[in-house]
């Protein structure tokens, strides 16, 4: 695609330098990306999933630009503690103790649930899902390679001395008292920011997930996992590392410190560090600690197609906070329906022959789309261009459809294959099923044909009471009335 477009230089915001930078790949023609994946002790809430929609947009943009993409996403099934600041119990062990199930079974169940959400949101599969517990021996070897010069051992584990690497914490900016306050004091630590890269199993305890190591039986630290796996699959120096903005303060600075130690270099490992901002819910249901959090299945149970949530995320720039409200989500669903209807009408007009984009107005539109993408993945500017394209009804339908398909290959909304009927998601509490609705509509049509308008109105009222909105004159005939 890159050769066909008057390509604008791709500029990305680097959290490490706090500025936009031209993307210059380490390996010409390739793009190597690492994304911090989920800790699979519970379902992922929709705020978590925003990070993977953003990473998917990045990957799709790199593909649009013509790069050969290698994207790695890890699955953390051990090592992540109940505090991101390297304190508390292991999340997997705690979930196992609370549920009575094995940590391994919990990891598999919630990994499968996460992968289902990935599929529902049309997020492309990475080159590899890197599972933490598959790499523990390599993590131990990584830790051994840096232990002598950069680590010290305490009763609780092997700790990294942050003073042994240059400019620790520059990713997060100046280390504030607030950040230090989030890090639990451990007796014997040389500095408050020092962190464990190997945690020993306490004397007299047995963990479900533990391994032998030079520092005793235990488990790797969360930060160690990402350094080892990114290094293994992408190299000591690679292009882009992504994650949520919450990782910018502790997790990613600790990764960088490990990378510097292992690679014997001041380099951070990735050339560009990118972070998506938070999804904000004023109702306070964006945290798993509440026990009552918003996950994708909750949206589906309300009758919302998952791609409406993807569209809602794309309507905001990834570095902007995005407020979640049911009204915003409903508006995104309506916008998605209108786009799908526009593409269906366009496809009806287009011949099946393969077309090339030759019309000057369409070539200009594609250039504007590329310019918006190249402006730090500005999806909020890209989406109106898809709608503008659908409105250019006097231009060749075949060429418009080809361009629409190209542009949507980046947005990932499945506009060329999604149907209005598929957007008609059954709410979990619906009191009637689709076959009964169709039967009622046939009865209503017969009543109208026989001019029994009272019976026809009664059927309409009955369906309305059961959450069904009729659409007279529309081939789809009906859809669920979503009240959220």
Molecular structure report:
- There is one protein chain.
- With 484 residues, the chain is of the alpha/beta class.
- It has 3 domains: 2-290, HUPs (Rossmann fold), CATH 3.40.50; 302-411, Four Helix Bundle (Hemerythrin (Met), subunit A); 434-480.
- 42% of the residues lie in helices and 15% in strands.
- It is built from 15 helices and 17 strands.
- It has helices at residues 46-64, 91-99, 103-120, 136-150, 177-181, 222-234, 251-263, 296-301, 306-314, 326-349, 360-374, 379-391, 397-411, 434-449, 453-465; strands at residues 11-14, 19-22, 30-35, 68-75, 81-83, 87-90, 128-131, 151-154, 157-160, 195-200, 218-220, 238-244, 270-276, 279-280, 322-323, 468-470, 478-480.
- A 5-stranded parallel beta sheet has the order 7-4-3-12-13, with helices on both faces. It has a 4-stranded antiparallel beta sheet with strand order 8-9-10-11.
- Strand 5 (81-83) and strand 6 form a beta hairpin.
- Helix 10 packs antiparallel against helix 13 (397-411).
- The longest helix is centred in the C-terminal third of the chain and has 24 residues, at 326-349.
- 41% of the residues are buried.
